[in-house]
Amino acid sequence: xxxxxxxxxxxxxxxxxxxxxxxxxxxxxxxxxxxxxxxxxxxxxxxxxxxxxxxxxxxxxxxxxxxxxxxxxxxxxxxxxxxxxxxxxxxxxxxxxxxxxxxxxxxxxxxxxxxxxxxxxxxxxxxxxxxxxxxxxxxxxx
Amino acid sequence: xxxxxxxxxxxxxxxxxxxxxxxxxxxxxxxxxxxxxxxxxxxxxxxxxxxxxxxxxxxxxxxxxxxxxxxxxxxxxxxxxxxxxxxxxxxxxxxxxxxxxxxxxxxxxxxxxxxxxxxxxxxxxxxxxxxxxxxxxxxxxx
Amino acid sequence: xxxxxxxxxxxxxxxxxxxxxxxxxxxxxxxxxxxxxxxxxxxxxxxxxxxxxxxxxxxxxxxxxxxxxxxxxxxxxxxxxxxxxxxxxxxxxxxxxxxxxxxxxxxxxxxxxxxxxxxxxxxxxxxxxxxxxxxxxxxxxx
Amino acid sequence: xxxxxxxxxxxxxxxxxxxxxxxxxxxxxxxxxxxxxxxxxxxxxxxxxxxxxxxxxxxxxxxxxxxxxxxxxxxxxxxxxxxxxxxxxxxxxxxxxxxxxxxxxxxxxxxxxxxxxxxxxxxxxxxxxxxxxxxxxxxxxx
Lengths: 142, 142, 142, 142
Known about the structure:
- The structure is a homotetramer.
- Helix content of chain A is 23%, strand content 35%.
- Chain A is built from three helices and five strands.
- In chain A, strand 4 and strand 5 (107-116) form a beta hairpin.
- Chain B binds chain C through residues 17-18, 20-22, 24, 27, 29, 75, and chain C through 17-18, 20-22, 24, 27, 29, 75.
């Protein structure tokens, strides 16, 4: 059972020349980096970034990524990437993403990522690490 | 209704130093390029590549991509990326992908892409272009 | 004869997880993109961006790039990339780049790029296009 | 004093769709990866790859890269990247690169990379590590 929350960050992404392909639009694979930019900003803002998690002895590799493309971004465009925390019971971190242009409600792309916890031996954690449960309580997400 | 077919290509991908991240594994976003490598090889082998399609006056942007990661690739690994044609009725091109190590049946990652047809004015095609229907007949996919 | 000028822009670059390699430092090839980020910001700020130039019927491909690496950037670091205009007589656009950490004088990397003018038929221009001469006069660079 | 040698490898690179920019040519930054592909192939073939060196307790970060672009590569092109060992007295590894099309003598791009030795504490080595001197003798490069 997954439930979208009110917890999100937004980052602005400026389309770089090197990101545009021969069709004059952003190559679809770069959206995965845009998602990562927003996910990292979320981690920084709410104290749940890669380095925070690494200090607790865990890594959180991506196990699933998906993206739906509704419209295209061109060279020179600015995009607003929103990364929203999605509640779930299993020992996973799920984020939902939307990409829009500034001041627009039209969705250019939307997607999601799922991450799991590995301990410092690389063993998959079936239960959420304690620090993560505490973080969820602190954020009113539990 | 989608139906996996017997039509596929396989390409070998060698993990490059620049593709490995701080966790010593291939950064998840690079799998999207691996998929593209295999998809392009499919297009070349079966006469349905970007340039073939462009000659008919169409482009085929990606509208959906997804990937599930089951295991990791490390620097120096070789991976076999299989791109399999998936039959579908709508005016779309769907491919399924698996990534394995040579001689292994263990799936490292699997995913899919969906592409649509735009004409030379950028208009979405609700019906498959004629050249594509002909291609499907020629390939016994219709 | 090349002469460094006082005309520059600075952009902040945050090191992304996907940019760090197995040595835990930014992969050297990404600095080329950092240079491009700063060069594009320069173009935007001073009205000499790709799109401005394209409107005048020219493209400005890179014909030379070089980078010297003095120190490393790590995940989470912020870098200040400075792009400085370099005066030269031939029909070229030359920029010099330095990368430092905010508030530091230590050079992490420095480099340069050289661009030439092609007209809309792809012909190399031996003399600077008129619009570029005018731009240089306007910027007191002539 | 640097001296080009007869020791080289060549790799074939196929231009990918994602590598082509809005000008329909390979984005200049990707040539740095092409160089790396050839450099890694050299390391593999002659037993001087990253992993070989790492086993001896050293890393070999890039401290200098340069590239001159003479012509362009387009989507669908195949390029032959040659990585040639360059003899030098200091504790450095220098490679020269050329990129040509198969069966052509026209140089599309040429460049070089310089690497230094760091020990496992990250200290720059002023003298070549012993294993490297032995390797040079074995390869008749000393």
